[in-house]
């Protein structure tokens, strides 16, 4: 009986219909995800100028050249700084704003939800152009407001100290509303009885946030963190290209933008592929670390 059941299960497993249903999705993943990843890894081991039909195998020379370049070390630091700035604006700030508006009347909450979400519908290129106009040191609205109160408008995009935060602000402004709505929805989902019981026990302010709200919001916070990280990396290229092209003196360039520059401006496709490999590995480590944190530290249920 058991062998007959196994035989029937084996025959059912050979039916083509389930595999035909999966074929379009697998084909899409293979063509547009896995094949580009494999090809990029192969290309990182070669030297190629995007024009010549010959691709010279150089092994790990592209990676060695990157790590021996002091400019690449600065690029890594600027990438980390850009991601941290984006996480502040797309993770910490939305949570704080959601906590601040939770106690407001419903009509005020609706108003803030609308105002914060409006930038989300704008394209990243449009948002970059808007902020580029705001930052103009001579005719920009920010400069005019500062001059009206007797202050000099700083050249934010021309100053190496302020250029990168000014560019990172674009991604923060665009995606703040999306993450704010998610954080607010999570806070509203917490049962009122839990909050009242915590207050009866004397939990207010920071103790209430640390001991009650954050543990209950654990899975949501992890999603916010992953979403903020993804948006900061996915939309990092456009603001830099529109506003600064990596200047001044490379102070707004990061690894996402450097891949484009190496490939399509300097025609060093192998070096660009090596940078993309390092970026992918770094992102994978971050995601695995966050998933480990979810498994070990976040309460389930």
UniProtKB/TrEMBL annotation:
User: Is the keyword S-adenosyl-L-methionine in the record?
Assistant: no
Q: What is its main location?
A: membrane
Regarding the membrane, this protein is recorded as: Multi-pass membrane protein
**UniProt subcellular location:** Cell membrane
Membrane-crossing ranges are: 20-39, 80-104, 116-136, 163-187, 208-230, 266-294
Q: Which SUPFAM superfamilies match?
A: MetI-like (SSF161098)
UniProt record similarity statement: Belongs to the binding-protein-dependent transport system permease family.
**Protein name per UniProt:** Sugar ABC transporter permease
Q: Which organism is it from?
A: Thermus islandicus
Native organism taxonomy: Bacteria, Thermotogati, Deinococcota, Deinococci, Thermales
């Amino acid at each position: 009986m058991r062998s007959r059941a196994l035989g029937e299960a084996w025959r059912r497993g050979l039916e083509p219909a389930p595999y035909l249903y999966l074929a379009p999705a697998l084909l899409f993943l293979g063509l547009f995800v896995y094949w580009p990843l494999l090809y990029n890894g192969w290309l990182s081991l070669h030297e190629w100028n995007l024009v010549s039909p010959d691709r010279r195998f150089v092994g790990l020379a592209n990676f060695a050249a990157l790590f021996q370049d002091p400019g690449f070390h600065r690029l890594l630091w600027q990438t980390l700084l850009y991601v941290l700035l984006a996480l502040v604006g797309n993770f910490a700030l939305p949570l704080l704003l959601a906590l601040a508006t939770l106690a407001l009347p419903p009509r005020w909450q609706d108003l803030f939800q609308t105002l914060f979400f409006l930038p989300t519908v704008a394209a990243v290129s449009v948002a970059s152009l808007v902020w580029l106009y705001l930052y103009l040191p001579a005719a920009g609205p920010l400069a005019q407001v500062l001059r009206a109160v007797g202050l000099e408008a700083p050249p934010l995009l021309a100053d190496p100290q302020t250029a990168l935060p000014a560019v990172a602000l674009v991604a923060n402004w665009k995606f703040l509303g999306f993450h704010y709505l998610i954080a607010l929805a999570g806070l509203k989902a917490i049962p009122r009885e839990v909050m009242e019981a915590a207050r009866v026990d004397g939990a207010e302010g920071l103790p209430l946030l640390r001991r009650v709200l954050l543990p209950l919001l654990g899975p949501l916070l992890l999603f916010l963190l992953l979403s903020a990280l993804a948006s900061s990396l996915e939309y990092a290229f456009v603001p830099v290209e529109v506003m600064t092209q990596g200047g001044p003196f490379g102070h707004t360039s990061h690894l996402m933008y450097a891949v484009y520059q190496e490939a399509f401006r300097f025609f060093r496709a192998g070096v660009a592929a090596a940078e993309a490999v390092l970026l992918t590995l770094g992102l994978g480590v971050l995601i695995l670390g966050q998933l480990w944190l979810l498994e070990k530290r976040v309460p389930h249920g």
